[in-house]
Amino acid sequence: MFTSPLIAAPMAGGTTTAELALAAQGAGAFAFAAGGYKTAGQLAAHIAPLRAAGKDFGVNLFVPRKEPLAPGQAAGLARYRAELAADAAVHGAAVPEVELEQDDPRVQDYWAEKLDLLLEDPVPVVSFTFGLAPAAVVAQLQRAGSRVLASVTGVAEALAAAATGVDALVVQHAGAGGHTAAFLPADGGFATLPDLVAAVRAEVTLPLVGAGGVSGPAGAREALSAGAVAVAIGTALIRTDESGARALHKDALGDPAYTETAMTRAFTGKPARALINSFVRNHTAAAPAAYPEVHFLTAPLRAAASTAQDREMLNLWAGTGWRSARTGPAASVVEGFLQEM
């Protein structure tokens, strides 16, 4: 299914640039474009260089929330907004009012428009995260000529995804940086990515991509030995020249002052793994499960912190293998993995 055993994972929010995807692809990896947080027009522009390159690539989309916020979630969001006021004042930012209808295109992450784009002008591979695309959507994309992947974090999710008719699964371990793909309660607490891959391999026959916490070629080899056909890397590419991550983020990954990561809803309302900074310490306990509303709530704070060069208020996404992330060309990182895999 893939042209390489190594995949450059899609990192939304600007980290995966077209330049990063092309550099990884040119060095021998299979590249994914990140469709999250983009309108259909922005996605079309993002993948145009990959289309022009003439090689297989993938596009990742967020599956939107199906139900409006529950009253308790809405109340928690209001409390959280009040809690953030002091942080916002530090850099002169305002905490916005966030009252979005369930059918607001931003809540839906422009889902319908992006599906229309990918059905009208298909790409080789489409992957989904944060939930399952309906079986009818999977079938539509397959009829258009795309292979379809679902992201899962456990055996129950893998079985549910397989039932929708997808062609393969991205099996994401909790050690992954950024957002978890989880959409069902945890069903295993697997210690390592190979353990998770092996457990899913025992229950489904679909091709598996191992992802999460892969800090080097040795970890990649172990995931392949456990039954994956390919391994995805994300954090390993954040510090590269072609990455669109903020310089503050790149530098933090190389700073020994940061010693741990944690899962937190503080920045977006959805669990995501980040370096532990002041924002994570101060707000993880109170942050409600309200995605994407919390994302929009904290966006002005993060922008102001970036302008002020204050990384203690930034979402410093990092997998558990972040210490191995290196600066330099993305091609060097990919080639280093492939040479030893």
Automatic annotation (TrEMBL):
Q: Which UniProt keywords apply?
A: Detoxification, Flavoprotein, FMN, Monooxygenase, Oxidoreductase
Q: Entry's CDD domains?
A: NPD_like
- In terms of superkingdom, the source organism counts as Bacteria
Is NADP one of the keywords? no
Q: Which InterPro entries match?
A: Aldolase_TIM (IPR013785), NMO (IPR004136)
Any Pfam family:
NMO
Cofactor(s) listed in the protein's UniProt record: FMN
List the catalysed reactions.
Answer: 3 propionate 3-nitronate + 3 O2 + H2O = 3 3-oxopropanoate + 2 nitrate + nitrite + H2O2 + 3 H(+)
Named from the GO MF annotations, one term is: nitronate monooxygenase activity
Q: Which SUPFAM superfamilies match?
A: Inosine monophosphate dehydrogenase (IMPDH) (SSF51412)
Report whether Oxidoreductase shows up as a keyword of the record: yes
The text of the family note is: Belongs to the nitronate monooxygenase family. NMO class I subfamily.
Its name, as the record gives it, is Propionate 3-nitronate monooxygenase
